[in-house]
Fold these 2 entries.
Entry 1:
Amino acid sequence: MLSGDVRRVDQEELQDMLDFAVPLAAVAGYPPNIEPHPSDFAAGASAEWAFFFIAGAAVVILALPWALRAVKNGNPIPILVMISGLICSLEEPMLDILGHLHWANDLTTAFTNFGVPVPALIPLCYVAFLGLMSYFCYFVIRNGATVKHFVMLHAMGLMLDALMETIGINLNVYEYYGVQPFTILGFPYWWGFINGASFVAVGTILAYAVPRLKGAQLGFIIFAAPAGMMINYFVFGSIHILAHNADIAEWIRWVAAAVMMAEMVFAMKIYHHFVGVKGDAPAPNWTLPRMFLFPMLPERKRNELFAKMCREGGVPLDEPLPVGIVAPPPYAQPLEPVPVGAPMPERAPALV
């Protein structure tokens, strides 16, 4: 140590200084609100299998033939987005730690990281939500979306996520522990806000990137879901994530969660700024019920609904909508590549 006026600061005094000056760093070591795995509860095989299909496996099984047929027809985007969702599942253990989630201790494990045993149901869940749901967001955005449509997509993702997770929680497959603001039936709705916005973030990245990528460059699409989710969590979600893992008063954590939820809604305007239709430009007349209905319709009915929305929104249809597309979900044909820095086209062509 230096001599003179500089004296040694012992560990206890240093901690006192931290407690006074930096509340967020008041406790050295493991974050104060995190409980390590394993958990002390079990789900049972029936609950695990049921939630395996509910969480995404059933949708992925139905969608895979559609994605493979799209590849055969020269459109690799759907299968690349599904692969992107699969890769994104590697982020799950980090989010479990930061969000305070425990899995049942008797689930089949796919992999372990951050000390978290991630169950085998998670990879296909990510394919369904960060892959297929994000692809639907991309489809809506590429065919012309206003700020209102971005907010609708966010609401749709939020509701689907809340429904799926509430089922899993009440099947005892997992739980959110500790202080979890805005919880209903075991599900903290701040998760719904951040997850729903993540699907739109990935759709935005796709809508911006796909027209600008050509040939082998399309392979970069597999990074869309991991990037979009992390942008959403750590740009717009950071205020809550920091508070959630800090040694601060509970009411501050509630305020941080509320602010973060508002930020997620505002993020829709930011995403729209990059790839949405502007001003009085025409756009299909989507409503929230139509968004839920659209992927579940038979092919011909879906095309008829899309044509109706285009007519209602003033979008010209240059030629009849073709048939022969496999559902679910809808199929969006990539536009011709757009040079880097060039403006986005006003809308994508009709379904092909």
Entry 2:
Amino acid sequence: MDIYLTEMEGEPLAPIGRQLRLPSLPEKFSYQSGNSFLTFNVIEQGPTILVSGLELVKISWSAVFYGEARRNNPNGLFREWQPPETMRELFRHWNVTRQPLRINITTTGLNYDVFLQTFKSEDSGAFGDIAYTVDFIHNIPPKIKSVRNNVANAQSQPQAAQESTQASVQKAYTVVSGDTLWGIAMKFYKDGSAWKRIYDANKDVIENAAKAHGMSNSSQGKWIWAGEKLVIP
């Protein structure tokens, strides 16, 4: 078994060149699909775990990037040594930038487009190891539909009505778990700093959802929840 992570880009998503073979496998990984939560022990269950055909929600594991002192002491989970600090910085980059990735766990049938939702790491032991935990969530393309607003006084002002109708063609997006306004802005505008534009267009929806979840406000869109229906201006 091997785990490969490939950077993706474009619509439809396509590999852009960089591919990582995970230097060492986790002892086990968890696979969440719908209401099912499955845990597979890589050592105990052998090399073949077929779980294809299930709808992915999340893949998680905890593992170790081995320090240089242990690069010549392989075990059953070791594949190829990579500097642990380099691996930590790469995973941090993927996490912060929400880099689209494709995860392929060979012999399992798992091959999905994902985002690295969470990455936590800490120095471990006297050999320069770095222990880490990751959660990958399914990168589902946004469902886009046209929304046209009613134009008042169309008969009395035909030219203004036509311009208003053209300007009111917008995109609708439903928030999913793990979304941020920055990430949504990246999807639609390729510019995360455009998040304020989305927030301003949906301020009432976002603030009402925050209050419904027991918060005084959304901290200017920092807190959003799955199911919120946003208009993308």
